[in-house]
Amino acid sequence: MSFLYKTVSLAFFSILFVGIFAFSQENIKVDFSEVIKQNVNPGFGSANLCWLTDSDKNRPNTVQSMESAIKELGTGSLRFPYGHLADNYLWHSPPYYDVKNGLRPKVAAPSQAPFGWDWAVNEDGSFKSSMDFDEFMQLCKKLDIKPLVVINVFSFKYKGGPSYEELKTAAVEWVKYAKKKNYKVAYWQIGNEIDHHKDLLSMDAYVNLYQDFAKAMKEEDATIKVGPGILSSVDYYNTIVQKYPDLIDFTSCHQYAWKYIKSCSNYEEWKNHVNLYTPNVLPMQEAVSNSTKPNMDIVITENGVTPVGKGMGDFSNTYKALWFFEMLMNEASLPNVAYSYFWGTHSPWSGLKDSDRDLGLLFRLDDNSRKPIADGIKLVNDHILDHLVATKQTSGYIRTYASKNKASDKYNIFLMNRNDKAEKVTLQLDKLPKKTKTFKRTEFKGKFPESRKVQITKQKVVAVENNSIDIILPPLSITVLQN
Fold first, then answer.
1. CA-based Rg of the chain, rounded to a whole angstrom?
2. Which of the 8 DSSP states describes residue 100?
3. Whole-structure pTM over 0.85, yes or no?
4. CA separation for the pair 275, 427 (Å, rounded)
């Protein structure tokens, strides 16, 4: 072999090696002494239950129970009975004092869904095999989960629905029953997306209803926490907190990805897109901070990277799981946000079969196994600690979040790589105890952006040298470092 051939060959393979293994370099500082949020709730990544599909008692799953699926997810709160359909749900049928044979929930108005869904609802409006309030509360108690209950406020406007007074009585009796049973409901949410249905109730009409319902409910049990069911309008919050400050204990909003239909219609667009993805949450946070009740909880009672069927993709896949992880961690970083509830466990709109458009779903219906977004939520719930600390959250394709516990002896770092190529990161860890020499490494990753399967693996430990870590992040991944 000639010298020239050797030289050319070596040069070729050097170029090939660099082309395959070259990485961009991101330098990211984590300051464990600067706390940006205290007392993050365990199980911050929460969920909307669907009472029509999620009953272990009446629809037992032979592969995995809902109880087991929820326990593995690690959620700290659950919303019941649902979102929009909750405004056509009555938790019990009068007479309310007669519960010897159990609760008798039913559809409030036969003119609206889910009435007419033969798989779920009988001709008299009762439910065939649903989860009732008792089963929900027993599930929450067993798993130490904080229950959030949605109170029906719209069905008196539906054809064939109850009267206003009947609906108000149902709300008060629900609180009375919970008190009698010693059920600890964390949040009583009065209505769902009330600003999205101004054709049914104007803002003034809703505010009047809110104070009427909330006052009557609190007269039954002064210890309960009540709040409005807001989609995005801070005007509703501001009006209530100014007029009736003693009748509001939390507020809410919903956060979907409608705003990003044009800018994030596919993976390549999202990969290079920079945003917090919280356009509804940030104004609500600002409104609460500037109000007379600046310590009030904000609950994001519906959340997701939907819309489905609007050109952004319809499936729970790898890059949508990464996207929702980023949204979830940005929400967790805000001072008043207590829980974020993904939409939802299953879809009743698909009946008793798995939806082929599952972007808004956590579990398969046939075996309650987790979809990719659910795996990402579990990753957060398993590893987020009490306090979030300062770091450069956005750096090129990398998203970084870090937390520590109250005792300051546990430190966890989340590193997400949006890129479909590997990325090299140097972490500078300020105020890390000198005794910390290694971090354990967990990886969450998919093979390609649209992959509907993800892998979660435990990797070798990562060494800390001079309070610094050099690490290569796989494509399309979330890496968690734990000391």
1. 25
2. T
3. yes
4. 22
